[in-house]
Amino acid sequence: MAAPIQKLASFARNVFSRMNSDVNFHDKLKHLRTMINGISAKDVGFDIEDLKKSETYGRDEVAPVTYVHLWEDETFSMGIFVVKPGGRLPLHDHPGMYGFCKVIHGEMMVRSFNVIKNSEQTEMPYEIKSKLKLWQMPQTKQVKLNTESVVTGNDECCVLNPAIGNIHEIKPVNGTTAFLDILAPPYDHQQMGSRECHYYEDLSCGSGDLRWLSLINQPTDFWCDALEYEGPKIDLPPLSPKSSRK
Q1: Chain centroid offset of residue 121 CA
Q2: How far is 71 from 81, CA to CA, in rounded Å?
Q3: Is the pLDDT of residue 21 over 70?
Q4: Handedness of CA 137, 187, 153, 89 (dihedral sign)
Q5: Where are the domains of the chain?
Q6: Which residues contact 174 (CB under 8 A, 6 or more apart)?
Q7: Cut 0.85: pTM above it
Q8: Which pLDDT belongs to residue 121?
Q9: CA distance linking residue 51 with residue 226, whole number of Å
Q10: The domain 4-232: what is its CATH number?
């Protein structure tokens, strides 16, 4: 009998390899979300003690975030992010992508924003303009707060799509947190394509829902090391041209 994580990977492949042509795509997304909600640390062989042991030996500086690679192909990527106290996944986007984050250890604070179309953005206020150089203006966008909440393993997974919750940041609460992360299609760093990850700084003052975000370089306090996946084997057949999402 296939392990839950194998079933999840197989269904994710099925969903996202046909995302541009399947009339049942959104119904399948709902089922995928239900499957992700059922995944636990045990299902992916994650043990926080293994991480602590890996950090005990031979390291002068421990990375604030550890990534455990589970799977990646052209349709989706799946892995585990482990964010340690004081670490974070800084404010970043997922261009044209769908994403699911399921906490499997600890708690995390998630703050996410909805993308506002250029035609619907309001005029940039002076207090924001005054913080920017002229060349930064086109790289600054208005967004609307989608959610700001603490998420635990008892909660449903966080979901983002190309318009809703697409820009987010994640911080641990009360110790280390870990979450299963699925992105579809994955970032295309290797090809320098349209799905590169961009980082942002929130320039807005106060606590209003409408915010102005300015494009920045990857923050220097964010980097990842890697931990080997110890869970059940994930085995998917090669993609055929007909099943490609393209």
Answers
A1: 25
A2: 13
A3: yes
A4: negative
A5: 4-232
A6: 106, 107
A7: yes
A8: 86
A9: 10
A10: 2.60.120.10
Contact predicate 82/226, CB 8 Å:
no
Residue whose token pair is 């906490």: 103
Q: What are phi and psi for residue 125, nearest 5 degrees? A: -70, 160
Among 110, 79, 114, 109, CA closest to 94: 114
Task: Pull the structure tokens for residue 179.
Answer: 């979450």
- Token representation of residue 108: 């995390």
> Which amino acid belongs to residue 244?
S
pLDDT in tens, 29-74: 999 999 999 999 999 999 998 888 877 555 667 899 999 999 999 9
- The per-residue pLDDT for range 69-127, each reduced to its tens digit, is 999 999 999 999 999 999 999 999 999 999 999 999 999 999 999 989 888 888 999 99
Burial class (CB in 10 A: 0-12, 13-18, 19+), 227: middle
- According to DSSP, the residues that pair with 107 across neighbouring strands are 152, 173
Q: Residue 172 in contact with residue 84, Cβ under 8 Å?
A: yes
> Three-class SS of residue 211?
strand
